[in-house]
Amino acid sequence: MKFKTHKKKIGVLGLREAGKTVFITSLISQIENSIEAEGRVFKDITAYVPWDNNTFEYKQYRDAFSHQEWPEKTKEKTSFKCSFEYKKWKYKDVNLELIDLPGERISDYLMLANTNFDDWSDAILSDLSIPRKVREHYSKYINYCSNGKVNESTIIMNYKELLYHFADNYITSSISPSTFNLDQEGKPIKRCKDINSLLNRRYVGIDAENQFAPIPKSVITKINEKHKKKSRKEKKTCADYQLLKLFRKRYELYRDKIVIPTFKDIAHCDTIVVLVDIPDILSSGYHKYNDIQRYVQHLVKCLNPQSPMYRALRIFSSKISSRISTIAFIAVKADLVRIGDIGNLKELLKKCIKNKMSVIQNVKQHYFVVSSATATMPVENNPNILVGNPTKAMKDGEPITRDKNDKNIGFEVPQIDNQWPEDNWAVENYVYPELFPFISRREDAPLNHINIDKVFELFLEK
Ligand SMILES: Nc1nc2c(ncn2[C@@H]2O[C@H](COP(=O)(O)OP(=O)(O)OP(=O)(O)O)[C@@H](O)[C@H]2O)c(=O)[nH]1
Ligand SMILES: [Mg+2]
Mutate which of 16, 21, 434 to test ligand 1's pocket (most atoms within 8 Å of Cβ)? Predict the structure, then answer.
């Protein structure tokens, strides 16, 4: 026990499958096995102790790698706390907390400052960050709400249809209530042929009984006007008034149960890490690129002192006098690109994000390129080829499914530039294989990584 403690609370954000769980698992494996870990800073770690009440299943996730499997998809927020000593600090030890957050919940950011349903409805239906192509569906929805024949099930179904168009057009960062995109069991929305059955399985609210959908301001004003002079008893028989009342109640429930806890967790962090999967953006195209930019824009709203979202966030954090002081954007899965292109990954990351973040003056910004669990090896004298164990491959011109016990093979990887593709974004030129991770049977072996130590150095900064 030392005189002082360096406390760090780090929230790890990113869209689905960005690599949050693997990132945290790798970082803990380096700290836990500091003697063997690569990177100067890990060598100075001693007296590591994980806390008893961790909900992040580190052992289970690390064990997956011993069986050449990736960790399971995360279903809910989890956290991992540990203490250790850093040889260079004589009088201080370190308490580190890492929080694995479902990044999709950021889409509910408009609910942060809009404490009531009426204001949120207006804010979401006039959100100009939605691309024009999908705004047409907004207009359809608003027209439907304005036709006077609205009832609970049809308005909810119409709103879900609208959100499905968002998902279908990669506008996932604007899907709110975010439970439609990522339900409370952590199941993400998937494209399917039978849209109606999909819409029935997804909820816009905390559960099937508590769903709600925004109502345009003009319609709310009309309802209020119509029922202004009616008694409470009379209002009870008016379907439109009752529906509005119901949605207001369900909105508050959703805000209390999902939005406030998520953003409270974020507000209590001093450092936010945002993982960005650039190979995935390159292989998906400009829809995904635009979606990441919108995602960052929502984050910017929460971090900009001029915004109402920031003020709402500060209310949660003021009690424990903490503040988000640092944000690190990390381009992950660097092992999927040619070694010579790793610098370009960083350039692409900065070019996608830095502009959006330029209005933020009160938070230190950092950019990294990382591979949390390297699953490839370079080949000497041939920079175009990497060696690894892809889950699928081509054999005699036919696609085949491979087994984790199959031998490693070499595969060609695309070259990436330091500029994002412009009009000629040919996604077929950016094919990255899904790989089995490298097997590491010894449980005390830290995962192979690139630059995890550089990020860790940031966590040790005051
Ligand atoms: N090649 C490579 N693949 C990675 C790496 N990190 C993650 N992956 C791949 O990305 C997938 C998702 O990683 P997770 O860490 O589970 O992603 P997540 O952000 O926690 O995902 P959710 O829990 O669904 O939100 C893994 O199953 C791997 O296929 C990496 O460092 N290198
Ligand atoms: Mg996860």
Answer: 21
C-alpha 56: how far from its chain's center? 16
Helix, strand, coil percentages in the chain from 3-state DSSP, rounded to 5: 45, 20, 35
**pLDDT digits 0-9 by tens, 434-444:** 999 998 778 88
Distance from C-alpha of 46 to C-alpha of 43, rounded to nearest angstrom: 8
Per-residue confidence band for 322, with pLDDT thresholds at 50, 70 and 90: low
Burial 323-337, CB ≥16 within 10 A → b, else e: ebebbbbbbbbbbbb
Calculate how far, in angstroms, residue 23's C-alpha sits from the geometric centre of ligand 1: 8
Q: What single letter denotes the amino acid at residue 340?
A: G
Q: What pLDDT, in 10s, does the model give residues 361-400?
A: 889 999 999 999 999 999 998 999 999 999 998 888 888 9
CB 450 within 8 A of CB 334: yes
Closest ligand to C-alpha of residue 438 is 1
**Mean local confidence (pLDDT), 179-186:** 83
Half-sphere exposure of 297 (CA within 13 A, CB side): 14
* In the chain, where the domains are located: 4-104+264-371+449-460, 108-259, 377-436
Average pLDDT over residues 85-89: 94
**Type of residue at 433:** P
Q: Is 16 in the pocket of ligand 1 (CB under 6 A)?
A: yes
Report which of 183, 10, 19, 17 is spatially closest to residue 105, judged by C-alpha positions.
Answer: 183
Measured CA to CA, the distance from residue 432 to residue 337 in angstroms comes to 8
Give ion ligand 2 contacts, CB < 5 A. Answer: 20-21, 74
Ligand lying closest to the C-alpha of residue 57: 2
Q: Which of the four CATH numbers 3.40.50.300, 3.40.50.2300, 3.40.50.800, 3.40.800.20 does domain 4-104+264-371+449-460 have?
A: 3.40.50.300
- The pTM assigned to this predicted structure is 0.93
